[in-house]
Design brief:
two-stranded antiparallel ribbon, single chain, binds iron/sulfur cluster, alpha+beta
Amino acid sequence: MDELTQAFRQFAQEKRADLIGIAPIERFEGVPTKNHPCSIFPETKSVIVIGKRITRGTLRGLEEGTQFDIYGQYGLSWLADRMLAMTTISLATWIEDNQWEAVPVQDLPPQVPPSGVAVKPDAPAPNVMVDVRDAAIRAGLGEVGYSGEVLTPQFGPRQRFQIILTDAVLEPTALCETSVCTQCKQCAASCPLDAISADESETVAVCGKEMTVGKINYDTCRSCQNGAGRNPNHPAGLPDRLGALCNRTCVHSLEKADAVENTFAGEFRKRPAWQKDATGKASLQGAV
Ligand code: SF4
Ligand code: SF4
């Protein structure tokens, strides 16, 4: 590994970045200009994706159905806007101390339409929204699971991402060859609103890596009362589902299958999971 990349990774580790993936800009070939990193910083040579884990205990109040605010802060708003953002800006500062420009980028929902007018003939209308989850795949951090969420070999669906665009040439991370998703379809089976089809799926390809993703009704997820919530960054973005029953079931399922590296002495799901139907009526799911 070259000296700059090695020193950067060492610093990132000291700053408690849980995941670092580096994609050369060539891996974004074919991405529309309205989502392309170079539309923000034309000199981009490397896209660094930084991941910070949602600790398993942060999901505990949701899993027991007794405390929802802990996840809302340590798993969502504080994790993204404070803890992860502090890591991102620390790493960007380090890069600029080493004489390369570094653009920190938060999780921008690519579903958000342009909100301004193009200022030059060859520029897309603002705001350009780089898809951070897509970038995580291009940077070798993981894959899209059947649930539609990014799964990493380290934490399954338990992380959030931000990125740094830089003109520094850093050593790329290889695409994730490991298949994290076991295709168990427990995410679909556990959904009380049948928002993920167990029968219909599509193949999503990123940089030649093909992944099978269930057909998902995100409008149903928007009204889900099982731990999902609106997109924290924009109402037009996909709903936040990382704490929802589908993804908590995925956490449990991946651990049971010994498919993630971050392991624990005890099982995540200790009791039957609660669920609410479309009317808000609560009941328990039988199998643990
Ligand atoms: S629950 Fe199973 S099928 Fe669904 S995303 Fe997780 S590992 Fe994949
Ligand atoms: S967010 Fe809710 S409705 Fe959507 S798949 Fe998950 S459990 Fe089902």
